[in-house]
Each structure stands twice: as C-alpha cells, then as structure tokens.
Amino acid sequence: MAHDIQVTPQRWTPKGETLVEKEGRTPLTVWSGIPGEASTVKVVHEGNNLTRALWVRARPPSPHRVTPQCEKYEACGGCPLMHLNAEGQEAMRREVVNEALRQEGMGSVHVGAFHASPDGLEDFRYVVKLGIDRSPHDKIRVGGWGRRDRRVVPIPLCHVAAPVMNKTMKSLAHYIIELDIQPFDFETGRGVLRAAVLRASRTNNEVLITLVAGRFTRALNELAEKVVQGVSEVVGVWVHINDTNSNTIFLRDDDTGTLGIKPLEGKETIEETVGGVTYRIGPGDFFQTNPSVAEILYARTIERLELDDQDSVVDLYCGVGGFALQAAKHAGFVVGVEELDGAVVRARNAARYNRLNAEFHSGVVSNVLPELARRLKGVGPVITVNPARRGLEEGVVDQIVAMAPRRVAYVSCHPVTLARDLRLFRDRGMSVGEIEMFDMFPNTPHVECLVTLDAPPSQAPTRRAPRRRVVR
C-alpha cells in the first residue's frame, strides 16, 4: 500500500531520479526529488532490491525547485528534470559527469564551461519519436512511451517540442485514429503501425515523417496523403518495415548498411543549416535533436581542434557529415566514416552543394580505419568521434592511437562510456583536456560533452596531409 515517509535524497541517479541509501535498508529512488532537500515522499513500490517513491512536498523547498509546466510530466517521464530551474539542471549534470569520471579514476579531468540552450528549456526539440498502442478501453493511442513501461501516453501538447512538431503530432494522431490504423502486434502478426519518427528543420520548418510498421498496407498511403494535405510543413512521408520483437525502432541491413525505407509522399530529405553548412537529412539519419546547441557544439569543436589547411581530418560516426563538413572549411583533407549508406550518400551530396573538400566512406568504423591508417601514415591526423551512447567499440581506441593523431575531439551524450574511453586513451599515452558541456537535451539528465585529447609532444608528423581539390 502507498504511504508517506520523510527522507532526504543524497544524490542523483543517471536517469534523473534521486537516491536515498541507508545501511541495512533497501535503496529508495524518488521521482522529482532533489539531493539535500528534506521531503515527504509517497512510497509506491517496495521491492527486494529497490523501493520507489514520488515526491510530495518539502519544507522549505530547494531554491532550484519549480513547478513542472507539463500535465504529463510524471506519466511520460521524458523530462525528469522539469522540476528544476536552469541552474539546478546544470548542477545535476555536473554531478553526473564528475561521478562518471571518478568511477573510472579520471577525477582529475576538469569539467569546465556549460553551454545553455539558446532556445531555452522549451520549444527546442526538432526530433520526436511516437509510439502506437491500445488503451485499456481498446482505443488507439498515439504518444510517448511511459515512464515505467512501454505503454503509450498521449501528449496533446509537448512543451519541449518545437511548435511545428506539436502541430504535426496532433495531425498524425488524428488521422491514425480516424483511419483506424491498428497498432502492430508481433505475437499475432495483426495490426500495422508501431511508431513514427518526426524530424523538423529549424532552418525552414519543413517536416519529414518516417512511419515504422510491422507490415505494409494501403492505409499507410492514405495516412501519408492526409497528413501532407493537412500540415503544409510536412514535405515527405516514408515507411520502414520492422516486424521483429524488439524495441529498436530502425533495423539496419547488416549486409547493405541500409534501412529499407519506402516513399509514400513527397521528398526524401529536409535541409538544416548549421554553422554556415547546409545538411541534408533523410529518414533514419542521425542529426542533433537541438540544432541551436549543435551550432555552438560544432563551433567549439572546430575552435579546439585549431585546424589549418595543412591538417588531415577523420570524422568517425559522421552521420550526414556533421563535423566533417564543418572541418572541411578549414582543413586541407577531410574524410568521414558512417555505417548507413543513405547517410553517406547525403553527406556526399551536401559536400558538393556546399562546395567543400570532403570525402565519405560507408562501413563499420573498425573495418574502415585500417585503410585510412595506411593512407594517412605519418601525417598525424586530427580525428573526431561522435559515437552512439555505447561509446567506442572494442579495439577502436587502439586503432585511433595507432594512427598517431595530433589531436582527438570526442563528443559524447553518455558520460559513463565517455569516461571509460577517456581512461583507455589516457592509458595509451594521450593527455585529456577539459570537458565542456552542452545543454542539447534540456529537462533531462542527458548532456552532450566535448573533450579534446592530445598526443605526446614527441609524436610529430613526418609528412604532409594529402590534398583534394574543392568539389564544384
């Protein structure tokens, strides 16, 4: 049975809850708590290994506490720090990053500047992922996945999504329900839709929708047509088939590096201009959720790399050309590596469109690096990495160090794997610079980090970088 108790949370968890630990007692997590704030909390679950509670009140409340503006704050759980002001959110992220470094014996690394989101704590998000299921009353639901399970929570107004995203979400949910497009059931093979991924351009407000379906039906064509007609900003609708029993949204073909997408309506790409470079983004492509922060991140990365036209730059996990195209404005030779074939095609197109001297290769990073190491032997390249949350795959740190880079810029959205990989670089002789934080995901515990690593002074290049003529 639920009951109230008095506690004072001691620290943050990586998921943005707070933790209460007492010797001889089961650890307690508090949703909406703040470390050091003496609070009344309601216990909602008592387990053998963990007890869960919801914050009720505090007297006095923390100076960082604010009232969450979203009525779905607790049920959705997508913004676990919405009860904190901007100063409180920054402090939380500093604690998480420093704790991750301490756990890896990297506590001496300095965590420096924090770059706030220029768009503030609302209306900044230009990527939204929606789920589709059925309610207990057997009604179709479209919304975000809930805090404690995979049940969908309808969100009529998402405070962190850009206005055009809210407009598109409402229209898409309306037509899914109107056309009675059923959620896909893996066990029975019945139903159609599993999810939808919406991406908008901050530059021109254009929206690209990728429907994720368990199977294809003509109803998806009708849905795409209605949404394009109903929302003028929607310029393209595509579909990706995923009939597996997995929470993974997109399935990549390991042999071809493709996602298996099919056009339903309109264009394949939208354009986003960041740092003077126009990127082309297609279905399933990775690009930063918060373009206003991406602009700051790209600028700081290039500044810290200190590039000139004698430099050779390798951008690993480059997506549609993220850091590579920015570096190409300064360096003599730039090459990007990305697993997804479609993203590589769009990166090449963007290089031509922007008249930048960059080349791009499709493949798994660990498979492509040996050939790049041969081409760049003795050059002392500059390397940028922006891996997924899992960090660098086993062996990639050794491959990078073997290329004798002059400098490495590591961008990460997951402090735990970042700290692990920084320790590996340090153990192989590279010096770790200051970490900068970027508020790419306001109201969440996630933070984008940038750190540069330098080679030992004795590791000097023995030859000049290769050259490529500018693509016209």
Largest sheet: 8 strands, mixed
Strand content: 25-35%
Instruction: Show unreliable segments.
Output: none
Instruction: Name the strands of the widest sheet in spatial order.
Output: 7-22-23-21-20-17-18-19
Write down the overall geometry: globular
Helical percent range?
Answer: 10-25%
Number of strands: 23
Helical/strand content category: alpha/beta
Distance between the termini: 70 Å
* Structure annotation, total helices: 10
Radius of gyration: 23 Å
Mean pLDDT: 93
In short:
This protein is of the alpha/beta class and 472 residues long. 25% of the residues lie in helices and 28% in strands.
Description of the molecule:
The chain is an alpha/beta fold. Helix content is 25%, strand content 28%. The chain is built from ten helices and 23 strands. The chain has helices at 73-76, 86-103, 163-178, 218-230, 291-305, 322-327, 341-354, 365-375, 396-402, 415-427; strands at residues 3-7, 11-12, 18-20, 28-31, 39-46, 51-58, 111-115, 127-134, 140-145, 152-153, 193-200, 207-213, 234-241, 261-266, 270-274, 277-281, 312-316, 333-338, 358-362, 382-385, 407-412, 431-438, 448-454. The strands form four sheets. Strands 7-22-23-21-20-17-18-19 form an eight-stranded mixed sheet, with helices on both faces. Strands 10-9-8-11-12-13-14 form a seven-stranded mixed sheet, covered by helices on one side. Strand 17 (312-316), helix 6 (322-327) and strand 18 (333-338) form a beta-alpha-beta unit. The mean pLDDT is 93.
